[in-house]
Amino acid sequence: xxxxxxxxxxxxxxxxxxxxxxxxxxxxxxxxxxxxEVSMSKAKEALIKTNNDYAKALVWLSEDAQISGAKKxxxxxxxxxxxxxxxxxxxxxxxxNGFKSKSTIIELNCETxxxxxxxxFKNLASRIAATSLLMHESSLSNKxxxxxxxxxxxxxxxxxxxxxxxxxxxxxHIGKTIKESIVETIGKLGENITLRRAAVVSEGVSAxxxxxxxxxxxxxxxxxxxxxxxxxxxxxxxxxNIDTLLKTARQVARQVVGxxxxxxxxxxxxxxxxxxxxxxxxxxxxxxxxxxxxxxxPELTISEYVNQAADGAEVIDFIRWExxxxxxxxxNNFADEVxxxxxxN
Length: 345
What we know:
By secondary structure, the protein is of the alpha+beta class. It has helices at residues 3-9, 12-19, 26-36, 40-49, 54-76, 113-116, 119-135, 152-156, 178-189, 239-259, 271-275, 280-287, 302-309, 334-343; strands at 83-95, 98-110, 147-149, 194-201, 205-211, 217-218, 220-228, 293-294, 297-301, 313-322. Strand 1 and strand 2 (98-110) form a beta hairpin. Residues 13-20 have low confidence and may be disordered.
């Protein structure tokens, strides 16, 4: 039997199914990949299954990402996530007759430094920081303590928001919670990802500094909070005053990241620690932020620098986080990692 006769024997229904197979629209395929960041094969599958209906393709991809992500998340949940990023976000919120400064810091963990440098992971961390900035209202009654930890469960159930620096919003994340977005990212990147901690500053004037990355995310992050002594309400300050305070706060945040202070003032040192010191002055200069030498002018302490640079302001709080601090990391065999990756584990 020749080839032509073979073709003639194929049932006509199969031939019709073959000749009318849906092909993904090239223009829609390009738009879908740009908007969702999925692979070419997954974008094609979405368009084919939905007959090139763009809106339905987005829904299909979202549902598929949750299913595959949940399976992967369950599989990798026991792995140690000791790498990742410290990410910050800040905004000046207009209020009646003035403005309000607000900053946030979060730690998002993954298993390897390689994944922490992936743009998908970095974008997720930035959006989580923005969410903690925009969704959480401080409940602190003590104004001298300006930094408040955010309950992680509350943050995980909040809708993911764009970072203030983003000019375009990826619609693939619209309407999804942080928890759902983390699950999807686990499916994409194949590693355990956890949101470890988050804090917000909503009193005083605050600014952040990041080391070991870009302007918003890195391996070490710090926030410094300043308060003018001459006014009790920030709405009394003009734009030039606010700008000076923000610049000064950023310099103090840089100091916090670089010199890793333990205490804000000498009075914060526990008695047991004080009694153990043989050279109290040297200890305070090393561990007390307001008594540390300012990195750009060692003739001044931080307290003196802030007082001079910001017209009588003072540092009232700070925070410094480093990726993975306190997490016991398992030493992995590199050959085993490669073998597990090849097996899809």
